[in-house]
Amino acid sequence: MLSFAGICHAQQNSTIQKYTLTGFINKKIPVELNISISNQLILGNIRYLNTKLKKPIKIIGRVEDQNQYSLHEFEKDGNISGSIYATFKDNKLEGNWSATKADTSYATSLIVKANPNLKPEIFSPFQTDQLAGEYSYQYGEKGYQGNISIKKLSGNIYTYDIGSVTHDPGRNIADASGKAILKNNQLIIQVNKSCKFSVKFYHGFLMITQESPGQLNDCEFGFNATLEGTYLKVK
Q1: How far apart are alpha carbons 125 and 205 in whole angstroms?
Q2: Which residues, at least 6 apart from 81, have a Cβ–Cβ distance to it below 8 Å?
Q3: Among 32, 38, 33, 34, CA closest to 17
Q4: What is the pLDDT of residues 15-69, one digit of tens each?
Q5: Phi-psi region of 39 (alpha: psi -120 to 50; beta: other; left: phi over 0)
Q6: Closest C-alpha among 221, 209, 43, 230 to residue 147
Q7: Whole-angstrom Cα distance, residue 33 to residue 35?
Q8: What does 94-130 look like in DSSP terms, one character per residue?
Q9: Cα 184 to Cα 169: distance, rounded to the nearest angstrom
Q10: What pTM was estimated for this model as a whole?
Q11: Are 189 and 160 in contact (CB under 8 A)?
Q12: What 3-state DSSP class applies to 222?
């Protein structure tokens, strides 16, 4: 299997948009947001400038219709500590930041700042032998949660074991296990003949999406349960 590193990294540099934005959450919490955008996918980090260490927190998100940005803060264990839903227009990102641990939401306003030294994020995995591992996401202790374990069996064949649950108080379960062939940087999870999910790998995380809209009724999961989501590599 060929390595994705050289080719994919060279291609992505020609199509990536990158921005540094600064401003405030709730008019009093200063933040710096660095993002790269490629094919509607957003990667980067956010720093809270009023904290002692100003540590960068990983950002993964998407550009939705009409320049709506959906950004999620991923801690190293896959927990999503906060989300920003905002519109990017005229070099301004304006909307709301919300926490996952509490029912709080604050106005957010950021503006593009010149930063010629900002390096683009890496979107594609370096090599296919780095895909195996544990991937996870969690919207706080009471929110949606999911975990997938991927192991290389032989050649391009991988095994998977995945489970996710809906939010409290009545958690419902979606799960699946089996093996699949890696092709074009993707695996297909086949729950049954009418229920399939695509697993696409990126640099340090993966995204799982339905193969066909509306198929969840055929998956025999618990109510509102799904395998879909963005899972951060934690091991």
Answers
A1: 9
A2: 57, 73, 74, 75, 99, 100, 101, 140
A3: 38
A4: 899 999 999 999 999 999 999 999 999 999 999 999 999 999 999 999 998 899 9
A5: left
A6: 230
A7: 6
A8: EEEEEESSSS-EEEEEEEEE--TTPPPPP-S-S-GGG
A9: 39
A10: 0.88
A11: yes
A12: coil
DSSP string, 39-99: TTEEEEEEEETTSSS--EEEEEEEE-GGGEEEEEEE-TTSBEEEEEEEEEETTEEEEEEEE
C-alpha count within 13 angstroms, C-beta hemisphere, residue 76: 3
| H or E element that contains 17 | strand 17-25
Contacts of 196 (CB under 8 A, 6+ apart): 188, 189, 190, 210, 211, 212, 215
Q: Which residue has the tokens 């995380």?
A: 205
Helix (H), strand (E), coil (C) string for 140-191:
CCCCCEEEEEEEEEECCEEEEEEEEECCCCCCCEEEEEEEEECECCEEEEEE
Copy the structure tokens of residue 63. 């550009």
Query: pLDDT tens digits, residue range 185-206?
Result: 999 999 998 999 999 999 999 9
Beta bridge partners of 229: 208
* Dist. CA 36–CA 58, nearest whole Å: 12
Residue whose C-alpha is closest to residue 188's, from 219, 196, 136, 134: 196
Amino acid code (one letter) for 41? L
Determine whether 124 is exposed, middle or buried from the number of CB atoms within 10 Å of its CB (0-12, 13-18, 19+). Answer: middle
